[in-house]
Request: fold
Amino acid sequence: MTQASVTPRLVPEFEYHADVSGIHDVGPGPLGRRMIGTIAGGALAGERLKGSIVGAGAEWLLLSSDGFGRLDTRTTFRTVDGAHIYMQFSGLLEMTPAVIALLSGGDAPTDFGDQYFFIDPWLETGDERYSWVNHTLFVGQGRHASRSRVEFRVYRVENA
Reply:
């Protein structure tokens, strides 16, 4: 007896944007060139989650010699009804000529799919109304809307 193969599906959950104020170039180190951007604001909007960024947050980007950047991002949202949700993600960003130009001060945005840019958001809250985020797997795709704004489409993974 064999089991049928079931492919998980991605369900749109929310869109998220972060406004980054100032990018600090730490410079080349033993693991690559590190850049840090302070998250100055932003929001998430979806059917079940709506809110804005509050408190401290940053994006740490490590540029490697393989043409990719590794992201480590942490921030907190306050929902429209007062819950706090912590979000952390790692990600992989292909350093295409358009992305490099943007990070170097250019103003031409990228679009979703113009480069390999994916994240794995992990959400956490103590608010019972949103406890479902504590045990939900998410994946997102990103783009640079400008040098100081990053946008993501985030999906939850569920059984088909």
User: Anything to note?
Assistant: Residues 63 and 156 are 28 Å apart (CA to CA). The helical segments are 97-103. The first helix runs from residue 97 to 103. The longest strand covers residues 9-29.
